[in-house]
Structures are given as structure tokens and as C-alpha cells.
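Forgive a beginner's question, but might I ask you for the amino acids of a protein and the C-alpha cells describing how it folds?
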Amino acid sequence: MINAQQDSTTREKKIEEVVLIGYGQRKKSDLTGSIVSVSSKDFNGGATSPEQLIQGKAPGVAITGNGGAPGSGSSIRIRGGASLNANSAPLIVIDGVPQDMSKNEDGTSIRGASDPLALINPNDIESVDILKDASAAAIYGNRASNGVILITTKKGAAGKVKVNLSTVASVSTRMGNVDVLNGDEYRTFVNTYGPNAAKALLGTHNTDWQDLIYQEAWGTDNNLAVSGGIKGLPYRVSLGYNEQNGIVRTNEFRRTSLAVNLSPKFLNNHLSINANFKGSFTDNRFPNGGAINNAIYFDPTQPVYMDDPRFGNYFEWLNNGSLNTVSNRNPVSLLYNTRNISSVYRLMPSIQLDYKLHFLPEMRWNVNLAYDYSKGYGSNQTSPYSGAGNGSYSYSPYEQEKKNKLFETYLNYVKTISSINTNVDLMAGHSYQDFSSASPAGESLLFNTNTGETRLTQFNAYEDQLTLLSFYGRAIFTIANKYILTGSIRRDGSSRFYNGTTDNLWGNFPAFAFAWKINEEGMFRDMSNLSTLKLRLGYGLTGQQEVAGMYPAYSRYKLSEETAHYLFGNIFYPMYRPEQYNPDLTWEKTLTKNIGLDFGFFSNRINGSIDLFQKDTSDLIAYVPVPAGGLSNYNTKNVGDMTNKGIEFTLNLTPVKNDNTTWDINFNATHYTSEITSLSDAVAADFKIPVGGISGAVGQNIQAHSVGHAPYSFYVFRQLYDNSGKPVPGAYVDTNGDGVLNDMDKYFYKSSTPDALLGFSTKVTYKKWDFSTALRAVIGNYVYNNAASNSSLASLTTNDYLQNIYRTAADYRFGNIQLWSDAFVEDASFLRMDNLTVGHNFGEVFGDRTNLRVYGMAQNVFVISDYSGVDPEIFGNIDNGFYQRPKVYSLGLNFQF
């Protein structure tokens, strides 16, 4: 973004003044769209993945961790998202390269890695720019409905060699335990309410299964960067190593990263080259996914071990001397007798050429070439001497290779026409991007140690491809340094919509914006304390094509797996099976309107902005039930419309700024509402799309999409309560008054959309000391507590085993699980301190041009919430065996010379 040739202070100032806008850059004062820029000096400390750097820093941007496992990443939503089943994550662009946002069936982007961003070292990142409204994001048209995040990595600067060495040691601990009964309490509960058969199953121990699966986890993060310039060749080379054990035993994450940047200039500075190489290698060991849930429910009166080598001498429930296959599994055995390991490497070479034409210096020609290669492979193994294996050794390998190829070029003409006092900035370009994914054929193994039988199950190879073609242009007119007009158009083609014809391939995405720098007007220009006052208006259309699968619109056949072969004679033959498709599938489109006001006073020591926005999405893409008679009961279709309205506010203050002390404060707030306004003309007005799967019943959902309600609203019964305030078992309001209690009496209650998102951060620097903290609050956050709803007295009378219960179950004493009671939709509003840091700069303790800073840091310091579960912040708002976020305590040092 910036060819910084000065020292780091000047370079940081430049970064603050200039903001990326997509295929170009603008001064902050000249922006017309809703854009937030966060530079490295404002990043959150302790981040192990790029998105954690900006959590809570930008209004309208919700970043929710996918769990506490190292490398698990986060889910990002800008202004609530604009889609139902289509990918609602924003487009992420790293150094001009749009990332592959597609997902596998298991939710991963590359097999063997929970999150692709976790493969990027956040210590290599210089700045993050967030394009929130369509007038800013529409230049990325086909993938910009949910906003765009532009990540710029660090570059070299000409001058003497600089070395930066940083190291951090950390320990992670759990937040707490799910509130279930301990051994003595459970014995009392069973002896009070259980039949004699249940009492006979009780043990004599007091085992805290949650204590046994969690641990204090040590970690380290080390980074070395060398930068400088050799005869006009600025360079930066960095090497990073991050190792983090998870708080769940057996969970491990290790990442080695390398980044190289070369940014020379040639032809008398007419030709600028920005060459980047990023590489990473990651090793993972994932804990057994069922260990957390089983630790919650496993009988606390039983021991960890028993004398039975069939199960590795771990205690398991038996039925007539054999494993009780319907019972809970021993959670400690699950962790130590299953092994899911993976290795992932990623290579990202890119080169960007920017040539200022000799014969027309106002014209620049930019060419961007990039290749993003990822490969993940691993295996999942289960010991035969365990409850999970039950006498059989299993081995299931997996492998995936993904490629992302980019060719992009544009012309940019910038000229100031003095006669009309107008600056003209014109840009036109073309983009070609190709994504491919492939997995080889293979086979899984199941070996029965009792019979000696070996079973091999083959799985097929697959390969798919997606191609995106785009043509785009933009014009920016700045008149008298007061009025700024911006217009852009992008025409996109996606192979996802190929149905044998080109009818639905292409979409057109225009955008317009206007900004009025009021502070440049005569009467305001004389106000010495007014630094900024700018009105912004934006209007634009963006597109969405990120749906499951690469060929959802095309008729195709798939080779059947081994379990679906057909028997002819004595031989099983594979079959080609037709896949569900929708030839009418087309672009989902979002029309965004935005009005904003930027303000600043006292040399911008007080500054901020307020934005009002509305997003209207049409042709919503959703995976919905379809009438019988087709190839499947579900299909991907364009089904309706949705509206999203909101307001954002941000305020930055510098109350104190002198030679010894600087105090900075940031506060931001967001409120928005989402409503589905239509689903389809072909369905009833009360048609519902069930979503939000839960445990406790097969194939059941607790949320639904329906007209007139927010997406992912909870669809439940209204619980009745007795005079003491306790819920009456199985008693609900007959909502429609027909005298019959059935699904027609369910109602929509709350949703996953909160009322408000709040962020606060502050940093105080006093002489050589610094203190900073960051807090977030989510108001009106509701979570369905599936761990609580799945507990009842029924566990005492079924299946010849005992399982622990949530503490509320002992209080409510439901005879059967009441999954659809609104009593389990809990207010999970919270205030969380994300980060607390205290540091001291020792200065040039090792000589001239050296600097040493030592700091202590705590992350996830506290959470204040009325939610009965461990962590109220859960993406999707359904709590069922959630891998809780750890509390992290770190000691670090940064040495420069």
C-alpha cells in the first residue's frame, strides 16, 4: 500500500492518513464510503489469528470466536450479514489477493485446518481496512454483499538494517465448569428420585470429569523480522513460530511461518514492484469432539478406571458384560484413545507491478499476479482397546489440495484540472480468478482384534473448480476540495450459475457516493477548533454467489461411495447417481443505502462518526425443503427478501497529550435489526425454514426462518410457571387457543441478532510505561442452552446407565426432556474484558539504536453475564458442548536493534 522510505514513526503516520479503498487508496479526509481503518498501533495484543487484531475495534463488525481451541479462528459479520444459507462472511483480501471463502461439508476451508486465517501470522500485518457499505465495497461486486476486509502486510523500508525480535510465553486456563451435579449431589438426587434399578448403578466416587479433561496449557509465540534496503531494494524478511496447547488435553497447535517482501523501484521511480511470499506450515492435534459433552454428562459417582483391558482399563458402562453402546463414553478415554492429527502448508507468492507511463505520467498501469496453494492431510485413528473402538482399530485418512490463481490488471488516471478546480481519478480494470479443490481416492481401515477381520472402505477422488470473471470501473471527482462524487460499476460472471447456458452467469453491480467536506466551507473554515465535518451519502448494489458446492445449477452425476454399490450377480458395482441441482439459481443481490457524518475537533483530538444504513437483500439463497418427486427433499434456491437496518457510532478521544503522557480512548456502538420480508410466492405466509440443529432428538431444530421475523429466530413453546416461579413440566401456552397443544402453538421468541454491540478500548503512555485495555459488551444476546434442555429425570429410568444432569434439571424435575421450552432460551448479554496489558520500555539498554520493551498481558480477563452456562458468547447462539475460550496470561518482550 505504501512505499515507506522513512522511519517507523513517519511510516505509521502515513498509514493512518491513507486508507485502502479497493484497487487504490485515498486520504481519510477524502473518503465517501463507510470505511474503518485499524493500524498496527491500535491492534489487540496477544492475537494468534489476524481477525483477533481488530476484535471490538470497529463499529458494526462482530467477531465471534469459533471456540477456544488454538487455530479455531472466528466468525466475522459486518452489519449483521446479508444472507441466510449463503456464506455470510466478508470477503478477505490479503495484499490485493481475494481469498477462497468456500467451505467443505465439515465447515473447514481446507481439510486439517479449522480456519484458513489461522495459517497467517498476525505479526506480519501492518493494517486492516474494513469496507462496510456498498458504495465502498461494490468495486468487489460479486463477493461483497457482506463487506470486505483488506489486510496489508508489513513491508521493508530503505535505510539501515533493523532487526525486531519478539517472544511471548503464555499459560491458558479454563473459564469454569458447566454447572452439573457433583458426586455427592448426584447420589442424593438418584436416591431421592430414582428407581431401585438406578440406585443400584450408583458408584462411590466423586469424579469431576470436567477437571480431568481440562489442563493448564502452555504456549509460546516467537517472531524475528529483518528489514532494510540494499542499493535501492527495500526488503523485509520475517520468521515466526507459534506453539499453543489447548486447554482440553491432547489438543495441540504449532505454526511455522515465513514472509518475504521486496519493494524496489525502477525506471526513475516510474516502475514500482511489490513482491511478496508468505508461507506457513501447521501441525494440529484435535481433541475428540465428544469429550466435552461426555464430561458434562458422565456419572460423577464412577471411577476413571476399572479392571477391564478390553477398554484400556478405563471405566465404561456395560450391558450383560459387553459395552453399553447407547451410553455415554468415558471422556478421558475418548481423549487418549483417539488421535486426530493433521499437517497443513500454505504458499502465497504474489507480485504487483505498478507502472507510471513515461509519456503520460498521470496514468498508471497496475498488474497483479498471485498464486495461493494449500494442502492439508491427516488421519483419525481410534484404539481398539477403548469404548470408542470397542474391539476395532479404525484408521481414516484425509487429504485436500486447494489452488487460488489470480490475474488482475487496471489502468488508473489521476489529474487535477486547475481551470475547474477539480481532481479526476478514473480507474478501469479486469480480474480473472480461478479456484480449484481436489482430494485423492483412498480407503479407511477397520480391523476387528477379536475376529481378525479387516474391512477396507474406499472413498472416491473428487475435483471441482470455480471461475470468476470481472470487469470494473470507478470515477472519483473531487471539486474544490469540498465535494467528492464517486461512481463505480462492476460486471461479474460466476461459473457457479452455469446451467448449460450463460443466462444466469452475469451480474451488474453499480454504486454511487457523495461526500461534502463542510469544514472547508467559508464560515466553517474559520472555526479553529473544527478539524473535520463531512457528510457522506452512499448507494450501491453488491452480489453474493458463495453457496455450497461449485455446481449447484448444473445437471451432474456423482460416482457412488462403496456403501451405495449395486449388486449384479456376485459383484457389487459403483453407480453414477444424479445430484440435486437448480437451473434457475442466480445471484443474490444486496442494495445498501448509507448516510454518515464524520466529525473532529481540536486537531482531531476528539473525532468520530455516525452512520445510518439499510441493506435490502433480494433473491435470498437458501437450502430449503422442496416437494417430493425430485432428486432430494432439499434444494438450493432463490427464495425471498430480507431487510437489515442499523446505526453505528464511534468516538475517539485523546484527553491528554504532552511530553510525558498520552491517553487515547475509543468507544464504538452498533444497533441493527434484521427481518425476512418474503420467502416465496409459492408457499404459505407462515412457511418456515427450520435451522439450528440441536441434540436430544434426531434431526430437530430450535430456530427457523420465517417472514416477519429475524433470521435464526428461536421457535419454541411458551413455558407456563407455578406460583413459585418454577416451570411446570410439559405445560405450555395454547397459543392459537384451539385446545390442542402441538407445533402450531410454537412462537418466535428472540433470535441470534443482539440489540447492541459495544466496544471500548483505552491506552495510557506515561514516560516509559504503557497501560491498555479493551472491553466488549453485547446487549440483548440470547442463547439456547442445549446442555440444560437435554437433562431430565428420564435419564434415571432408561438404557441401564446413569448420566449426570444440569443443575436446573434437579430443580425443575422434568420427567422428560423439554427441548422446545422457551425457559432454555436465556438472556446471555455480557461484558467481557478481552485484553489488559502493562508494559515498560527500557530504551537503549544495549546501546544506540536498540530498544527493549517488556510487558505482561491477560486475555479474556473476566465476563459479567447472567447466563447459566460457562461462556455466553457462542456463534449461532446454541450451547451444546462448546469448547470454551481460555483465560490467557502472557509475559513478553520485544527487542529492536
